Amino acid sequence: MDSADSAGTMGGAEATDGAPHTPHTVGDVMSQTVVSVGRDAPFKQIVMTMEQWKVSALPVLEGEGRVVGVVSEADLLPKEEFRDGDPSRMEQLRRPEELARVGAVTAGELMTAPAVCVRARATLAEAARIMARRRVKRLPVIDADGLLVGVVSRGDLLKVFLRPDEDIAREVRRDVVEPLFPGRDRSVGVRVADGVVTFTGEIRNTALVPVAARMARSVEGVVDVGFDLARSA
């Protein structure tokens, strides 16, 4: 079993312009404390490791830390499920991969492979899509060489919604208002409450309204976007 000796933190570093660093990538929010097992880890050790670290899945590594699979509680459960009886013919047809694990005793035999992983440089939206499509709660995070560098969970991805409203407002003004509505006499304002961005003032070119909404929604931590605009005379 391997475990890193440092824990990951959400991006709190200062950007070059002095503004708080915005968490845009998986590497910004992932946990660097990683608990894993090797291919030869026995069944009981896997269960004990999950219980000790309070996790529901473990990356399976080989060599210098290459992720070759993931073993989860779902992979272990068939052994208990069919302890007192054999699967029916229908179950054998519907669940061949799961039932093959009933007699498995090591991580290499139990694991799901290839592992569903994500790169540290992937965006948070990309990681969220992978989790949703593959129906997993945690993803091993790998570097360009396929080596394990961390793990990201659903909870980690939700950390972006802890951003202060003033930070979100600052980024929306800089990345949305300034490029779309340039000029000193700009009449478009921004207010943020509980992550909800509201554009205020007057937008003379109404074609820019959906553009502004789309750009604002791409800012990490934004919950929703609305408009409270003055009517043109």
UniProtKB/TrEMBL annotation:
Gene3D superfamilies per the UniProt record, alphabetical: CBS-domain (3.10.580.10)
UniProt keyword annotations, A-Z: CBS domain
Domain CBS positions: 30-88, 111-168
Keyword Transcription belongs to the record: no
Region (Disordered): 1-26
UniProt keyword Acetylation present: no
Domain BON: 164-233
Protein name: BON domain-containing protein
The species this protein was found in: Streptomyces radiopugnans
Classification lineage: Bacteria, Bacillati, Actinomycetota, Actinomycetes, Kitasatosporales
